[in-house]
Amino acid sequence: MRQPIMAGNWKMNKTEHEAADFVKELKPRVSGISNCTILICPPFCNLSKVHDEIVDSNIQLGAQNLFWEDKGAFTGEISAPMLKSVGCTYVIVGHSERRQYFGETDETVNKKIKAALAHHLNAIVCVGETLEQREKEQTFKVIEKQVKEGLKGLESSDFKNIVIAYEPIWAIGTGKTATPAQAEEIHAFIRKLLPKEVAAEVRILYGGSVKPENVKELMGQPDIDGGLVGGAALKADSFEQLIKY
Ligand code: PGA
Prior knowledge:
Elements: E1 5-9, H1 16-29, E2 37-41, H2 47-54, E3 59-63, H3 80-85, E4 90-93, H4 96-101, H5 106-118, E5 122-127, H6 131-135, H7 139-150, E6 162-166, H8 180-193, H9 196-199, E7 203-207, H10 215-219, E8 226-229, H11 236-243
Parallel strand pairs: 1-2, 1-8, 2-3, 3-4, 4-5, 5-6, 6-7, 7-8
Helix pairs in contact: 1-2, 1-11, 5-7, 7-8
The structure holds 2-phosphoglycolic acid.
């Protein structure tokens, strides 16, 4: 049985104050929920503060990125042990915005995943095609490459700490969601790419304009195990509705 995950990716949003206010508002609204992993991924500078606020709650903490070395002369970077030390249990790796604006490749994604796993962080590995790739019917090829190269060298036992997020780039922040059938087609394809012995256990999230109006239908698909949510996770009210789909 795969436990659903509703993950809020705040991207570069919220000051420390705003982050704390959000959690104070969300916490009592979702306190009874145990059948869904609730995850918040704030900017690095708010991780400690959010961690203080979620102690003793059912909300988990994730980061949006990490570097693959543990420490050293890597100005501006943050390592897996640092994320662990402020209470993170998850980290997003290879978000399309990281790939697009910060030059991340399947190779760097692979190194980051391995660093996360080495420090017992769950890695949420993002994959997804551009609109141009979809229109040129390259979606399956693109996704297969991202999944295979991103997860290269992993052992079967590593997959208990792997979550995959399918986020078609044309659906991110655009209001344009993949139809449940479009998403399910890719989710089922991704599951087939995973090692047979673990495929049924790995959670595959959908991301790209998930909102209260479409969450139920998306979550009704057999291979969609949750959402990686940007815009609709910035307000406690709409994030609560997603969690309670
Ligand atoms: P969105 O972002 O929900 O605002 O489309 C999703 C994401 O990029 O993770």
